[in-house]
Design goal:
The chain has helices at about 5-10, 25-35, 40-45, 55-60, 125-140, 155-170, 180-185, 190-200, 220-230, 250-260, 285-295, and strands spanning about 90-95, 95-100, 145-150, 175-180, 205-210, 235-240, 265-270, 305-310, 315-320, 325, 330-335, 340-345, 360. It has about 350 residues and is an alpha/beta fold. Strands 1-2-3-4-5-6-7-8-9 form a nine-stranded mixed β-sheet. It has a four-stranded antiparallel β-sheet with strand order 10-11-12-13, with no helix packed on it. The termini are far apart. The relative contact order is 0.10. The structure holds pyridoxal-5'-phosphate. Pyridoxal-5'-phosphate binds near residues 92, 93, 96, 98 and 146.
Length: about 350
């Protein structure tokens, strides 16, 4: 049996499996997992150094999950609403779709946006997958299919090969993307055989998900190297979370570490308004301050785009430190990473503004 299957088989799933917890705390975990599943493997749990550290918080159930007021939603992004034309598919943006190919994960993140539906259902039955392929064949405007879940790389190589082959047979689909957390939480799944199969389906992109520099282990690095060597461009989607990575120095270390593993930071997400996750949320200002601390200070390639995904299906919106202080008929006034402001002519025909470019120092 391959190592990753052994890790899955021997995973922690009950309060009693977490030795560091008192019997009362173990009972709490068992209460939480009635509503939100608990599952973690020895590799990822092995990254925990002490109780309540940034790795622990991401994976060990907490009684706080049951204390959320009714302010939040079970489907904060309305993925199952009117943007879902067929089961398992969300078609929100004109040219691309989100296709949920499984509802199983290697670990169940306590902060998950799809907390309401992961872990409870298996892989969609094949006839429902066929309905998705039919929809995509008819919708010639779709040029980008994003496989998500659950974790698509938990499907067998053969199942995933079938899905990718079906999608590849649709002429208007140009690129395929896979969203997977496995390089972070079960890097042993990235086997040479899996990668050989994936590379038949180029252009294929993978977005992975790391939230803390301690997740950047030699095993994770090896998994990313296998994928990158197969010509698969790698991105990372990070979630901003209280007590985990809401700090400029931690975020810098994470982003620079990802680049060294040939992973391009793609998005930094403001945590969604999902029931059972409010203890992870930070003020929007925290995200803006972190972006201010990254942009201009480190390699541009290491800087993700900060995204707020609007509740009610509004979609992703990029927000960031405002560099444009003012734009009027004559000039644009801009603020650089050091806080200095500069003037730039607003009109294409004009030259350098009178006097110095540097207006003042803040
Ligand atoms: C995030 C998302 C996508 C992909 O968005 P990009 O900004 O292109 O990465 C597509 N569909 C849905 C429903 C999404 O939430």
């Amino acid at each position: 049996m391959p190592e990753w299957k052994k890790l899955m088989r021997d995973s922690l799933r009950r309060g009693a499996d977490v030795a560091e917890l008192s019997p009362e705390e173990q009972a709490e975990v068992d209460e939480v997992r009635k509503l939100y599943p608990f599952f973690s493997n020895a590799y990822y749990t092995g990254l925990i150094e002490k109780k309540d550290d940034p790795i622990w918080k991401q994976v060990i159930p907490s009684a706080q999950e049951l204390e959320d007021p009714d302010l939040y939603s079970n489907d904060a992004l309305e993925e199952d609403g009117e943007d879902s034309p067929v089961k398992h598919l969300t078609h929100r943006y004109p040219d691309r779709v989100l296709f949920t190919v499984t509802y199983t994960c290697a670990i169940y993140c306590r902060f998950c946006t799809r907390k309401r539906k992961v872990g409870l259902n298996p892989v969609p039955p094949w006839h429902e997958m066929e309905a998705v392929f039919d929809y995509l064949r008819e919708h010639t405007e779709v040029r980008d299919v994003l496989l998500s879940g659950g974790d698509p790389l938990l499907l067998s190589d053969a199942q995933l090969d079938w899905i990718l082959t079906e999608l590849r047979s649709i002429p208007h689909i140009e690129i395929l993307r896979i969203g997977t957390k496995l390089p972070c939480v079960l890097p042993q799944r990235i086997t040479p055989e899996l990668v050989e199969m994936l590379k038949k389906h180029h252009p294929l992109y993978i977005n992975t998900h790391f939230n803390h520099p301690r997740e950047l282990t030699p095993e994770a690095e090896k998994a990313c190297a296998l994928l990158a060597d197969a010509g698969i461009p790698l991105g990372c989607q990070t979630v901003l979370m209280k007590g985990i990575n809401d700090d400029v120095e931690v975020m810098k270390e994470l982003m620079l570490g990802l680049l060294r593993m040939r992973v391009k930071p793609y998005y930094l997400y403001q945590a969604d308004l999902v029931t059972g996750t409010s203890h992870f949320r930070t003020d929007v200002q925290v995200g803006l301050d972190i972006m201010e601390g990254l942009q201009g200070h480190i390699t541009g390639f290491a800087v993700p785009t900060y995204i707020i995904d609007a509740p009610g299906g509004g979609g992703k919106m990029a927000v960031g430190p405002n560099r444009l202080v003012e734009l009027n008929e004559e000039e644009a006034v801009m603020r650089n990473y050091e806080g200095k402001t500069f003037r730039y002519p607003a009109r294409a025909g004009s030259g350098v503004p009178e006097g110095t470019l540097i207006q003042d120092y803040v």
